[in-house]
Structure formats: structure tokens, C-alpha cells
């Protein structure tokens, strides 16, 4: 986590026009699908903590631009098996990674709170965008596979832009694509440092989606929710957002017949 100073929590005056969201472990349960991929690879997921930490280390190198995504995947898989004393070639690692990746992709699922939240925000007149640190084709496939193609006004993917969160340039590019000033935009993500604090440092409203609820208070400068079901209340009650449509169907309630389904949106 960063130790850099952050702006005060008091929002600047003005209406919230847009909400940006991270994808992995924010909208999509990436940890669950990755765990299933590991189980397909080795027959169980007992080594999940080792896989997760190995992935964290190698993914950092990808985000920093030190290796490409395919190389990262091969090196990560080699390092994982090496941790258990098995040395494998690049070709063998690539083959095992292909198998694991296919199993993981078949298990891609949105969190249950994702679609109701997206539909509420869209019905309330907010623009929506994603800001994600990953390769372009990989993330676009993920978005399409989970029925979110067409759900967003813009998609800011680090693999396309050449800059990654928490670099303020990717947050500012999102604002520009939405024709909104940073203080008119909220960004929500599961990473306190990369998402919430990065967004706050760029002048947006940073919201930390702390699904595990492991800490009770967010640091100065960011808001915290433990579920996307809490986001509408945060936007209306704590941030300067007034829905165009009265909040007549909170997430979890039956949707009215006129509600546009995100999966049916085309833009
Ligand atoms: Mg994430």
C-alpha cells in the first residue's frame, strides 16, 4: 500500500457524471476462476496460496512493462512448479498454462452484485467505464464472455494505452473519454492502492471495494464499501450524485419491466 499523502475526504461540489470500475475481483470473481483453473491443472487447490503469491509477483512485472503477458504466464507457471521441486521447460510450462487458462476461462463469472449495480447506475443516468490493468484481447474476451460487451461507454485497458493503474494518466484518459472532470467521476476497485488511492491521487473519487472486510476504516481520501450493493447508497448519500430516476428499485429488489438489461445494451 502506498504511503503517499492523499486529498481530504470532502468531495468537491458538482454532480457525479460517471462511474469507472475495475474488472478483476471487482465485477468478475477472478480469484474463484483462477482457483478452479489451478484445480484443473494439479487436481486440487491446496497450493492456492503459493499460486496466488507467485502470480502477484509475476503480474507486477507484466504491469511494469518488464515482460509481455504470454511470457509472464510461462514464467509464472515454471516458478510455481519449481517451488515444489519440479523443473519444467518453457514448452511444458506453456502447455500446462494453456490447459489451466482454458479451465479458468470456462469458469469466468460475474459476482452476484455486479449486474444489479450496473443496471441501477445505468438507469440512474450515469456513464459507465472500465479501467483495467491487463492485455487488450484478454480483457475484451472476458468482458464479452460475461455478457458485458456494450455495457460501457468506454474501456480503458492498460494493454492498449501503455499506462496502468495507479498512473494518473489512465484515470485522466477515462475522464476525457467520458467528457467529465476528475471530480465528476468515481472509480471503484478491489485494490486499495492501485484502484482507490490511485484514483484519489488523480483527483477522482476513489472507492475501495473491500469484499473481505478485513479492515474497518478506509484511509483518508477514499470511501470503502464491502459489496457493490452498497455503491448506490454511497453515490446518493455520501457523494454528490442525484439520480435522474428516483431510486425505485434498489439492487436486490425485483426490477421494473422497463429496466434496460445491461446484456441487451448496444452502443
Ligand atoms: Mg482488481
Automatic annotation (TrEMBL):
The keyword Hydrolase is annotated on this UniProt entry: yes
Alphabetically ordered keywords of this record: Hydrolase, Magnesium
One example of a Gene Ontology biological process annotation: small molecule metabolic process
UniProt-listed InterPro entries: HAD-like_hydrolase (IPR051400), HAD-like_sf (IPR036412), HAD-SF_hydro_IA (IPR006439), HAD_sf (IPR023214)
Cofactor annotation: Mg(2+)
Region annotation Disordered: where it falls in the sequence: 247-267
Molecular function terms, GO-annotated: hydrolase activity
Keyword NADP recorded: no
Gene3D superfamilies in the record: HAD superfamily/HAD-like, Haloacid dehalogenase hydrolase-like domain
Protein name: Putative hydrolase of the HAD superfamily
Species annotation: Saccharopolyspora gloriosae
Amino acid at each position: 500500500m502506498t504511503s503517499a499523502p492523499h486529498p481530504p475526504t470532502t468531495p468537491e461540489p458538482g454532480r457525479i457524471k460517471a462511474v469507472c470500475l475495475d474488472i478483476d475481483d471487482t465485477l468478475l470473481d477472478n480469484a474463484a476462476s483462477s482457483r478452479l483453473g489451478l484445480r484443473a491443472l494439479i487436481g486440487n487447490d491446496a497450493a492456492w496460496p503459493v499460486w496466488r503469491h507467485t502470480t502477484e509477483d509475476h503480474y507486477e512485472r507484466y504491469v511494469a512493462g518488464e515482460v509481455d503477458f504470454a511470457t509472464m504466464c510461462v514464467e509464472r507457471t515454471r516458478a510455481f512448479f519449481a517451488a515444489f521441486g519440479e523443473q519444467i521447460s518453457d514448452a511444458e510450462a506453456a502447455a500446462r498454462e494453456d490447459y489451466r487458462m482454458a479451465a479458468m476461462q470456462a469458469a469466468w463469472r460475474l459476482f452476484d452484485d455486479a449486474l444489479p449495480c450496473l443496471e441501477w447506475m445505468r438507469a440512474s443516468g450515469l456513464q459507465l467505464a472500465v479501467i483495467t490493468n491487463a492485455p487488450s484481447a484478454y480483457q475484451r474476451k472476458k468482458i464479452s464472455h460475461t455478457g458485458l460487451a456494450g455495457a460501457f461507454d468506454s474501456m480503458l485497458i492498460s494493454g492498449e494505452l501503455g499506462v496502468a493503474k495507479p498512473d494518473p494518466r489512465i484515470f485522466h484518459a477515462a475522464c476525457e473519454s467520458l467528457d467529465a472532470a476528475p471530480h465528476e467521476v468515481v472509480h471503484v476497485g478491489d485494490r486499495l492502492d492501485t484502484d482507490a488511492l490511485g484514483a484519489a491521487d488523480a483527483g477522482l473519487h476513489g472507492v475501495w471495494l473491500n469484499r473481505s472486510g478485513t479492515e474497518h476504516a478506509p484511509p483518508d481520501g477514499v470511501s470503502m464499501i464491502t459489496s457493490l450493493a452498497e455503491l448506490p447508497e454511497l453515490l446518493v448519500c455520501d457523494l454528490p450524485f442525484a439520480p435522474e430516476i428516483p431510486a425505485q428499485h434498489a439492487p436486490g429488489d425485483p426490477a421494473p419491466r422497463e429496466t434496460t438489461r445491461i446484456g441487451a445494451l448496444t452502443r
